[in-house]
Amino acid sequence: VKNAPAGAIAIVGDILDPAVTARVQSELGGRADLVTSDLAPKLTGIAARDEARSRELIDCALTFATTMLKPGASMVAKLFMGAQFKDIVDSFKAHFGSVEVRRTKASRPGSSELYIVARDFRRS
Ligand SMILES: C[S@@+](CC[C@H](N)C(=O)[O-])C[C@H]1O[C@@H](n2cnc3c(N)ncnc32)[C@H](O)[C@@H]1O
């Protein structure tokens, strides 16, 4: 990885691969205060397929976070407005005490891109 900041460890891999989660756990040597996810699929233009793939990625990011976060920790994750929006937000509410959805000024006008800001992770 080019231009990685000093002290950063870059792990390049597929987030759907459990070996990647295991590697992050081992490098971190403990639980995290924050997980951020900017995951997005390569769009095909086939709406149902793109939406299913986006859902798979955000579900995987949430599963990753639930294995990785300390109690009380936070997560910020990209999601796209779509039919599954409420289900996705509810899945975060099952794990965090506070869940907000934000739009950033940096997103392109007309983009369906949003960010979930989830705080107060509750370990089950
Ligand atoms: C919106 S871009 C993120 C850009 C990034 N924030 C940056 O500044 O370079 C979405 C990223 O998700 C990655 N991605 C998609 N599916 C993935 C997967 N299964 N595992 C890991 N990364 C994935 C893509 O490779 C792409 O780089």
Task: Give a quick precis of the structure.
The chain is α+β, with helices and mostly antiparallel strands and 124 residues long. Helices cover 34% and strands 27% of the residues.
- Sketch the topology as an H/E string, one letter per element: HEHEHEE
Q: Main sheet, how many strands, which sense, barrel?
A: 4 strands, mixed
Distance between the termini: 35 Å
The strand line-up of the biggest sheet is 1-2-4-3
Secondary-structure-based class equals alpha+beta
The fold-level CATH name is Rossmann fold
Question: Could you describe the 3D structure shown?
Answer:
With 124 residues, the protein is of the alpha+beta class. The protein has one domain (31-121): Rossmann fold, CATH 3.40.50. The protein contains three helices and four strands, in the order αβαβαββ. It has helices at residues 18-28, 47-68, 85-93, and strands spanning 32-37, 69-80, 96-102, 113-121. It has a four-stranded mixed β-sheet, covered by helices on one side. The longest helix is centred in the middle third of the chain and has 22 residues, at 47-68. The mean pLDDT is 93. The structure holds S-adenosylmethionine. The site of S-adenosylmethionine (SAM) has 8 residues, from loops.
